[in-house]
């Protein structure tokens, strides 16, 4: 029996087909939670669900583009239908391509970055809140970024979207704190996932991240981000609300 309060809980993790979301879904499952894996990548989502089931856990998948309201609604409805409630929403899915300096950001890149990295978490949060309000409890954890708390040469649209996540987190935290719902975020520094490797097919991910973040120190493993996300969702963080928790080896210190 775990002290996290997550045993038997109903958890949605977006972007759980890969990287930080995958590590987070696996850790929630180890805590005894039932996990809905939402991702655009059907193969990744299925593989993570199978990994959870192979250890006796419960997992379902929803495959689709979370920046569409119909998909966001389907994620929330499927969690409630499959598990009977929605206790935890982790808005983690994100894209880091289309990174351009301010003068070079195209309209299409701006719209897509904001749509996936900011609007999708809002759509999911809006869809999840009525269920959490009805239950009188819930936890939302958003994956922001080091680029969400400081400016970075990381692509203007990405940085703007992640700063938006910080605002979404803080305002939602204040608005629902008397209703038993906590909203927090992690702000990862450079982390060894596909998003970083894909940005540099030559395999110099940490060097690429360092190029726009300055000296990042040691690059994080996805499991280190997952540990912080699961902590913020757990009863161990019962009085923590509206926090943006850097997990960046001191980059933002
Ligand atoms: P990743 O690329 O391994 O995982 C992202 C997942 O999100 C992928 O499985 C992808 O298919 C999914 N996804 C992307 N767009 C989607 C959409 N429209 N609908 C549904 N699923 C979608 O990358 P990583 O690193 O695990 O990223 C997770 C989060 O962490 C992102 O929000 C990212 O911005 C954030 N982050 C990552 C950092 C890093 O250095 N890896 C640093 C700071 C923040």
From TrEMBL:
Entry-linked Pfam families: adh_short_C2
GO MF assignments: oxidoreductase activity
Signal peptide bounds: none
PROSITE patterns: ADH_SHORT
Database matches in Gene3D superfamilies: NAD(P)-binding Rossmann-like Domain
Keywords: Oxidoreductase
InterPro entries: NAD(P)-bd_dom_sf (IPR036291), Sc_DH/Rdtase_CS (IPR020904), SDR (IPR050259), SDR_fam (IPR002347)
GO biological process, alphabetically ordered: monocarboxylic acid metabolic process
SUPFAM superfamilies listed in its UniProt record: NAD(P)-binding Rossmann-fold domains (SSF51735)
Domain of life: Bacteria
Family stated for the protein in its record: Belongs to the short-chain dehydrogenases/reductases (SDR) family.
Name of the protein this chain belongs to: Oxidoreductase
């Amino acid at each position: 029996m775990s002290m996290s309060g997550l045993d038997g809980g109903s958890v949605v993790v977006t972007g759980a087909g890969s990287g930080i979301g995958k590590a987070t879904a696996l850790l929630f499952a180890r805590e005894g939670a039932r996990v809905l894996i939402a991702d655009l990548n059907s193969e990744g989502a299925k593989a993570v669900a199978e990994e959870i089931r192979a250890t006796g856990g419960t997992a379902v998948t929803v495959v689709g583009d979370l920046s569409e309201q119909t998909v966001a609604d389907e994620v929330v409805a499927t969690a409630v239908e499959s598990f009977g409630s929605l206790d935890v929403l982790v808005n983690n899915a994100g894209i880091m391509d289309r990174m351009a300096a301010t003068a070079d950001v195209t309209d299409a890149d701006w719209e897509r970055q904001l749509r996936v990295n900011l609007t999708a978490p809002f759509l999911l949060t809006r869809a999840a809140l009525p269920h959490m309000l009805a239950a009188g409890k819930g936890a939302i954890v958003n994956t922001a970024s080091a680029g969400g708390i400081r400016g970075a040469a990381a692509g203007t649209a990405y940085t703007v979207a992640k700063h938006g996540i910080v605002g979404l987190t803080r305002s939602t935290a204040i608005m629902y704190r008397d209703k038993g719902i906590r909203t927090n975020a992690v702000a990862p520094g450079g982390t060894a996932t596909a998003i970083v490797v894909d940005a540099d097919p030559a395999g110099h991910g940490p060097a690429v991240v360092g190029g726009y973040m300055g000296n990042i120190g040691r690059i994080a493993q996805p499991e280190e981000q997952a540990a912080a996300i699961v902590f913020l969702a757990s009863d161990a963080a019962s009085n923590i609300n509206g926090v943006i928790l850097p997990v960046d080896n001191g980059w933002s210190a």
